[in-house]
Amino acid sequence: MTFLPFNLLHRRLLLPLVFFFSPQGGLLVAATINLRPELCRAVLMKVPFVDVVTSMCDEDMPWVKFEYEEWGNPTADPLVYAYQKSYCPYTNICQVR
C-alpha cells in the first residue's frame, strides 16, 4: 500500500485513528503522520524505519545494496534522492498544533 491510498482510506473512516506498527509499517504510518497529521490521534511505533534518506545512502549497511533495485540508489541518482527525501518522515518532521 502506498501513502496516497492509505490516506484516502483514512478520509473514508471520518475519524482520527490510533496506530501501532513495527518496522515494516513504520515508514507508511510516519509518512502519513507528516502528510496528514489530522488523521492520527496517536501512534506507537516499535523500531520504525523512518530515516529513509540516511539509511539508503549508507552503503555500509548490509541490506542497502539489495534494496536499490526496488527503491533506487539515492547516491547515484539525484531524482531518487529528491523523491525519497520528499516522503522521508525524518527529514519532513513539522510541528502541528
Could you characterize the architecture of this molecule?
The protein is 49% helix and 11% strand. It is mainly alpha-helical and 97 residues long. The protein has a two-stranded parallel sheet with strand order 1-2. Strand 1, helix 2 and strand 2 (40-45) form a beta-alpha-beta unit. The longest helix is centred in the N-terminal third of the chain and has 13 residues, at 23-35. The protein is elongated.
Q: Whole-Å distance between the termini?
A: 28 Å
Low-confidence stretches: none
Rg over alpha carbons: 14 Å
The strands making up the biggest β-sheet line up spatially as 1-2
Order of secondary-structure elements: HEHEHHH
Please provide the count of β strands: 2
* Basic shape: elongated
| Biggest sheet statistics | 2 strands, parallel
Mean pLDDT: 80
State the helicity in percent bands: 40-55%
Beta-strand percentage? 5-15%
Q: Give the helix/strand class.
A: mainly alpha
List keywords for this structure.
97 residues; mainly alpha; two-stranded parallel sheet; 5 helices; 2 strands; 49% helix
